[in-house]
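pinging the channel bc i need a second pair of eyes. not urgent but kinda urgent?? the chain im working w is below, pasted from the shared doc
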Amino acid sequence: MFIKTFKVKKKAGTAVLIGAFLVLIAAVVLIAHARAGRADIYTLKTESDRQAFISQMGWEVGKEYDECKVVLIPEKWNDVYKKYNDLQKEQGFDLTDYKGKTVEIYTYSVHNYKGYEDSEDVFINLYICDGVLIGGDVCCTRLDGFMQGLKRL
């Protein structure tokens, strides 16, 4: 084994130490900036995982999903997809990386949306790819309906 040592003058050693400290601070700031605006990673492989997540978001749903469909996120987006992805970005998701991929959409009836408690028109949709939540929404399917992010306001 070969070991190489070197001697650093006191002033130079302090400069190296300060430089290393500044690099460390810059790395922390870059990592924090990269995580800002991103959603937490939720692994939702089972029904109980999805139910726990929905409850964490503040919603009450039935014991099982109403519908599960497999869809292909298109490579080219029209204005509707672009606008929908803007909603996803607001809540820390981004569907851009999933263009051309198939995803599962689990749909549940929401029972505790204020003003719609007795309605069958409010749903939560969870977009899941390979067991990981990649987006979703809460929406009302009435003619004067709405769409919002996953978290209960």
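so Strands lie at 67-72, 102-109, 122-129, 132-140, 147-148. and The longest helix spans residues 10-35. — does that match what u expected or am i reading it wrong
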